Amino acid sequence: MVEKSIHEINRRIKDGSVNVVTAEEMVGIVAELGADGAAKEVDVVTTGTFGAMCSSGVWVNLGHSEPPIKMQKVWFNDVEAYTGLAAVDAYIGVTQLSETRGMEYGGAHVIEDLLRGKSVDVHATAYGTDCYPRKQLDTTITLDDINQAVMMNPRNCYQKYNVATNSSNRTLHTYMGALLPDYGNATYSAAGVLSPLSNDPNYETIGTGTRIFLGGAQGYITGAGTQHDPTNKFGTIMVQGDLKKMNPDYVRAATFPGYGTSLYLGIGIPIPIINERVALATAVSDADISTNILDYATASRARPKLGQVTYEQLKSGTIDINGREVTTSSMSSFKVARKIAGELKDWIKRGEFIVSLPVDRLSTQGVFKPMLQTQETPLVGDIMSGNVVTIKQDASVYEAAKKIIESAFNHLPVVSNNNSLAGIVTSWDISKAVADDKFDLVEDIMTKDTVKAISSETIDVAAYRLDQNNVSAMPVVDKNDQVIGIITSDDISKLLARRC
Amino acid sequence: MKIRINVAPDIVVTPIIAEVILETRTLLNISQAHIDSTKGEIIADVPIDEFDKIKSALTSRGAKITIMDKPISRDEDECVECGACVSVCPVKVFTFGEDWSVNLDEGNCIQCGTCIEMCPHGALTLEQ
Question: What mean pLDDT value characterizes chain A?
C-alpha cells in the first residue's frame, strides 16, 4: 500500500517537483498505471465546478457611522440584507430580490457589483438607542470602503444533482431553468468527472479546514454543508473566503426567469493523493456517476423518479426517458469547471497553494430529513364539493344552462360517455353562446384543455394552479379521470377566512 | 434566407403557400408554423434569388413578409457557456464544441426567443 504524508506532498509543492493533474486526466492515469502506480506518480488531483449555488452570501461590516446606528434593517441597492446581529454587520444572501427591480436584480448582483468595484447604495433604518441614537442612514459604498466582505456559504458544491424534466403541458420556470412541456428537455447540474466531492466520496481529504479555490481566491471548507446527505451520495460543504480577493470571472450573478436570482460560483478542491484508495477514488469518470431524473411537474418534495442516468449519458446531449429521446442542457458550465481545475493545478505547480488535510472529517453517514409539520395542511379532498353536477359532452347548451341554474354551480365539468373528464363549461361560455346565437352542443362551446386537480393535493398547490391558469374552479378527478368533485377559489377563500 | 410570413385570420383557410409554390415553382422550406383561428405565422427558408418572386406572390394574396436578418445575439461578457440554451432551441442554434464551448450558429435562428427566457445570465437578446 502506497502511503504519502501531506508534508511530503507540500515539500514537493515548495521545491517544484510536485506532480499535479486534473481529475479528468487522472481517469486515464489510473487506467494505465493502476491505483498503486498512480498513487506513486501523482501527488495532487485538482477538481472544479462552476454552477448556481443558491445557499451563498457575504457578511459585510460597514464600520460605524457618525452618529452611530444599530441597523435594524438594511438594503443594498434595494436588496434587503440580514441584520439580526451587532450594529453594522449584515449578511447579503444571493437569492434576496430587489424591492424595486424584482427578479432581474438580487443579492447575487449586489455581490458581483461590489466585486467589480461598482458603488452600491446603502439604506438603513433603526429604532435608536442611547448608544446608537441614529434612526436612518443613507450612503454609497464600494468594496474598498467596507471593513470585511467575507463570503460564507452554508451549502455549496453538491456532490451531484438531480436531473429535471417536465411531464405537464406547460413550461415550468424553475431553479433548473425552463422545463419545456411534455418532456421537451431535461436539465442537469454539477461537473461529473470534475465534481469535487465525487472524487473523494469517503471525504478522506475533503473536510473541515481543507484549503480550496473559492471564487478565484483561496478559501476554506468550514464543515459539512446544510442538507449534507452522504448516505445518498448528495454530500455538501460549507465554505468561507475573502470576497475582496476573489475574481469576478468566478463569481457571477444569475437570474432564472420566473424563479429568482442565484450566484454562479467557482469552487475547486485539491485532493492530495495520500494513498491508493484516494488515488482510485479520483479515477471516477462521468460513466461512474449516476443520478435520478425527477419530474418537476409534481409540485411536491417527493417528485416522481422517472429513471436513472449517468453524467456520461447527460453529456452526450440526449437521454432516454421512458422511451423518448430528450435533449439535455447543462445548467453549470463544464468549460469553466475545467478552467478552475486547471488554474488550481497551476497555483499548486507554481508553489502558490499549499494543500491541507482536514482538521475534522465530514460525516459519511446521515440523510437530509423532510420538514416536521405540526399543522395539518388541508387537502383538495377536504374542502372540495363532492356533490358536483356534471354534464355530458353531447348535451345541448340549453340543458347546460338549466343545470347551472338548478345546481347554483357556475362551472359544469363536461364528461364523455364513459364519464371521464372531457372539458368544462361555465355560465360565461353559455352567455357567450347565447350572445353569438350559437345553440350547439356543449362540446362545441366547452373549454377542452381543462385545468384539474386531484383530491390528495394540498390546497396551496391547487390555489397556485388556479392562479397560474387564471381560472376560478377546477374539476377534481380520480386516477381514471372520473370527476369526483369540484374545487373553486371561493372554497379556498372561505377556508382562509375561517383560519383568521 | 429566412422570412416570416404572417397571414390574417380571414385567409388562414386558403392554401396560399401551396398556391405560391405552384405559381413560382420555387422550393419554400417551412421550419416553423403556428396557425390557429386568430392568426397564422410561418417561418420559411427561401433561395435568395427567388425572394422577390415569392414575396410578390405572397403579398398579392394578402400575406405580410418580414425578412429575418437579425438573429439571436450573445453578450460574450455575460455568457458563462453553461449550455442552458442548448436544450430549449427548436432548431439547434447552440451546440457544445469539443472543448465544451457553447457554439452559436446564427444562421439557423428562427427568432422564437425561447432561449432568452432560459439564459440565467441574461446574455441573449433579439433586436426588434
Answer: 94
